[in-house]
Design goal:
This protein is an alpha/beta fold. The protein has helices at 4-10, 28-35, 49-62, 97-107, 126-135, 181-196, 200-213; strands at residues 19-22, 42-46, 71-75, 88-95, 116-122, 139-148, 151-159. The structure holds S-adenosylmethionine.
Length: 218
């Protein structure tokens, strides 16, 4: 069973095509796509030796005779090693903005290849991610907001064609009203006001204490 966040990401994967889960960690997403036959081949990619070791163990338990060539486990740093991602879906989830961009630049130095979808769930700074992807020639295929650990996050699916990638939530057919929009805006307002404050950490700390312990505002 995938978490609601991973389920949202799963639904953006192009079926019947290869999948690269880059920075896969636990590998739940790719393993599910492989087990259900959604994609083949499935490439599980991570730069952590520990993660890859645990993943191999999990795969051995689930497929004692071996998973076959349809499941590839790759121990590499996707910021440096080219994975030949062509035609299908590359998922980069739970990674920071600059890690995502370094990986995108390494994997797609010529810009977006035709028929390749990027599915991105950035940890923060999603607006900056959108601007940077737009500069690199990516267009929006789908976007949605999802709730995670008390925050509202954005999920983006980008390709070589689609809607223009605006820095903020698009006024387009891709956008879906799932009730999270007001919370998302409120969070963003807080984020920008804190970022622009001369003492951002103190402001943030004060607000966090006020919210947690109900201290009076002064
Ligand atoms: C927070 S986990 C995210 C796991 C999963 N994608 C998810 O969204 O639940 C980030 C993973 O990305 C891996 N990672 C970070 N930078 C990487 C890179 N340059 N190449 C490959 N893996 C990377 C880390 O080792 C870690 O396992």
């Amino acid at each position: 069973m995938l978490s609601p966040r991973l389920q949202n990401i799963y639904q953006c994967i192009v079926p019947g095509r290869p999948l690269w889960d880059i920075g896969c960690d636990h590998g739940y997403l790719g393993l599910q796509a492989f087990a259900t036959g959604l994609c083949e081949p499935v490439h599980l990619v991570d730069r952590s030796a520990l993660v890859i070791g645990q993943l191999r163990q999990r795969v051995e338990q689930s497929w004692p005779k071996g998973p076959g060539v349809g499941l590839q486990i790759c121990h590499c740093d996707a910021e440096k090693d080219e994975l030949s991602v062509r035609g299908g879906t590359a998922v980069l989830a739970g990674l920071g903005l600059w890690t995502i961009l370094r990986i995108v630049d390494c994997q797609f130095p010529q810009g977006p290849p035709k028929g390749t979808r990027l599915v991105l769930a950035c940890v923060l700074k999603e607006e900056q991610l959108r601007v940077q992807l737009r500069r690199r020639g990516w267009f929006l295929q789908h976007e949605e907001l999802f709730a995670e650990n008390g925050h509202v996050r954005q999920l983006l699916a980008c390709q070589a064609s689609g809607e223009p990638l605006e820095p903020f939530w698009n006024d387009s057919d891709c956008s879906r009203d799932n009730g999270l929009w007001p919370t998302y805006l409120a969070e963003r307002r807080l984020y920008f006001s804190v970022s622009q404050s001369s003492e951002p950490d103190l402001v943030y700390l004060k607000q966090a204490l006020q919210q947690r312990f109900g201290l009076e505002k002064k």
